[in-house]
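Structure in, sequence out. Go:
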């Protein structure tokens, strides 16, 4: 794990982050989150590897993001929505430039995503792109919460509250840039937290 040269470390040389009350909490890694008590016997074979994988933070993060994506996808707009959705859908389809600021990353990523989902209308596939970006943002909130030292239940509650808040829910189901923006806000916040 990359860390600043002067970052404090715990006895096991793992980078640590400070919680709100000043206590030193280790940054969660695959090793620290998959640890089990010494009295628990190790499972053998592929079932043991599967059980071990299910306990990792990476799997939990992916599962939460996948479940949120399914919820968004079930309610996604199957046609062009009102407002900027028509302009953005057209710009993505022809690789054009929508109104300022132009949203170049949304246009380019939005052009590639519908190629991965070759069924349904172009507008619906672009709605799924917004859903995927928003679900990834919710998964990022969970991972950030765990990095901040929250329990799995608290981090899940925070991620689901963010995912199903009316403001994000409304933008995650239509052809808009806000789901992708939310993903970058979470990514920058996580990077800032990790840097401190």
């Amino acid at each position: 794990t990359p860390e600043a040269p002067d970052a404090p470390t715990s006895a096991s040389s793992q980078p640590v982050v400070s919680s709100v009350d000043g206590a030193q909490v280790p940054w969660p890694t695959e090793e620290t989150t998959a640890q089990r008590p010494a009295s628990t016997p190790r499972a053998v074979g592929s079932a043991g590897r599967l059980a071990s994988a299910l306990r990792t933070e990476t799997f939990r993060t992916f599962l939460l993001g996948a479940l949120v994506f399914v919820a968004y996808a079930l309610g996604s707009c199957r046609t062009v929505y009102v407002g900027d959705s028509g302009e953005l859908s057209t710009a993505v389809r022809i690789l054009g430039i929508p109104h300022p600021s132009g949203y170049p990353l949304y246009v380019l990523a939005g052009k590639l995503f519908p190629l991965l989902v070759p069924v349904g209308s172009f507008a619906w596939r672009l709605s799924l792109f917004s859903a995927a970006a928003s679900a990834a943002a919710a998964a990022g909130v969970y991972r950030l919460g765990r990095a901040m030292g929250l329990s799995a239940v608290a981090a899940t509650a925070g991620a689901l509250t963010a995912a199903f808040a009316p403001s994000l829910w409304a933008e995650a189901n239509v052809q808009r840039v806000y789901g992708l923006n939310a993903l970058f806000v979470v990514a920058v916040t996580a990077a800032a937290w990790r840097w401190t």
